[in-house]
Amino acid sequence: xxxFGIFALSLSLVFLAGCQAAPADPxxxxxESEEVLSxxxxxxxxxxxxxxxLQAEDAYELVAPQxxxxxxxxxxxxxxGAEVQQGDRLIEFDNSTLISSLEDRRAGVLQAANKLASARxxxxxxxxxxxxxxxxxxxxxxxxxxxxxxxxxxxxxxxFQRKQVDAKKALLELEEAEAQFEAxxxxxxxxxxxxxxxxxxxxxxxxxxxxxxxxLTVRAPRDGIxxxxxxxxxxxxxxxxxSIWPGQxxxxxxxxxxxxxxxxxxxxxxGRIALGMPxxxxxxxxxxxxxxxxxxxxxxxxxxxxxxxSRRFFGVTIDxxxxxxxxxxxxxxxxGMSVRVVAAELVAEDVLLVPRISLEIDAxxxxxxxxxxxxxxxxxxxxxxxxxHCVLTEGLSEGQSLxxxxxxxP
Length: 410
Fold this sequence. Notes:
By secondary structure, the protein is of the alpha+beta class. The chain contains four helices and 22 strands. α2 (96-148) packs antiparallel against α3 (157-215).
C-alpha cells in the first residue's frame, strides 16, 4: 500500500475507533490536552496529502543518433544523477558494426578512385585515336580535293570522273571521322562522370561511417545533471546492454530553473483538490524544509499508475510560489526527488469545534455523544470533521469543558 493509501486508512480508523492523543490541528489553533479540552470557535480545515516528485518542464533531450546502425546497443552510460560539464562523455554505443564496415568502405573508395583513373586513361587514349583518325581523314580529303580540281581537259574523262568520286568519298569519311571524334569526347566524359559519381558516393559512405563513429559517443552539449529516461515497456531506466532505435530519447539534461512538482491524485479522491489551491511541499530527503506552492494544473483524464496496476490517477502540476525555489534549487532540489504535498481545504469558518478525542461516535447509528469534564455524556449533532475536530451544530455551548472518551484513557 502506498503512502496515500496508508494515510486514508488511518483517517478511517481514527473516525471509527478514536485515538489516544490529539495532534495539533492547524485549523483549530493548536493541540488539545486533558486540562484544556473544551468547545471553542475556529475554522475547520481538511488536509489532503499527495505524493509526487520534482521534474523539470524544460530539458535537453539526448537521443540515440542516426549513425547508420539499427538498432544501437548501449555500451556505456555516465552515472545517473551525475553533475556534468559541457563536453563530458555521457553515452557510448557499440561501434563494432561500423568498425567492421569501415575497412570495406575504405576499400570501396580506393576501388572507385582506381576505376576513375582507368576511365580517364581509356577516354584519353580513345580520344587520341579518334583525333589521329580525324587528322588522317582531313589530309586525305585535302589531297582528294586538290586532285579533283585538275581541269577536265588536262586528263582523260574517266580519270577526271574517278577523282571527283574520290573527293566526295574523302569528304564523307572526314565527316564520319568528325562525328566519331565528337562521340568519343561525349562518351569519354560520360564514363568519367559516372566514375566520379561512384567515387563521391563511396567517399560519402566512408565519411558517414567516420561521422557515425563520432556520433556513437554522446557528449554533454551544456552543463547540467545527467538523468536516464525510463524504458516504458519494462518500467525501468535504460541500462548498459539495452538496444535502442535511432531517435529514441535515452537521457535528459534538465533545466533546473523550470522545476515543478508532478503529483498523483488517485481517482477515488477526485474533487478533493482544485486549481489554485495553496499547498505545502516537503522533500523526502529534507522533511524539515517546507516550501509553499500552488496547484496549476489537474489532468482531465486519469491514467494507470503502471502496466500491472488497476489503480488510476490524475496528474497534478504544482508550481512553487514566486521566489520560493529561487536560490535553493541548485543547493538541494534535484529532479526525481520525492515530494510530500499537503493541500489545505477550508471546510467551515467561524464555527464551534469539538475535539474528536472527546466524542463517542457510533458508526452504525451515525450518532455521537460528547464526554463532559465530569465524565458524563451528552448527545450532540455533528457536522463535517477532519482528523482532529468536528463541527458542532447542536448539544453544547462555546467554552464548555470536555473530557476524554473511555477508549482514550490508558
